[in-house]
Amino acid sequence: MPRPWLCHFPSWRLNCAQNIAPRHLQGIPTLKTVVAKVSDPVGFHLRAAGRIVKLTKTYASSVTIKYDGKIANAKSIMGLASLAAEFGAEVEVHVEGPDEVEAAEAIVRLIAVDLAHPEQEE
Q: Which of 45, 63, 72, 96 has its CA 20 to 30 A from that of 25?
């Protein structure tokens, strides 16, 4: 007997409850897609990825970041670090959910401005 709740794909690729992929992975525009330049001189490393994950987890929206043809769940520290986005690189931030506008603004601000200032970290 098939078990519909059993998902064989990573959660960022498939929403098991609805059995559909997020809109931007289907080629359908999301409600909020923005581009941000990486402000950290070292790029996306574990500390920067950790700060992004910490912020992203405060929002209910689904957030993915795309760079150089690779897509990562913004709530996964290893996924973000594996993007290896360098200083000045432009990354696409896709946000889909009930608080997508606020989430997109906060995440872009963090990537484009706040990552360059680690001393301001809480």
A: 45
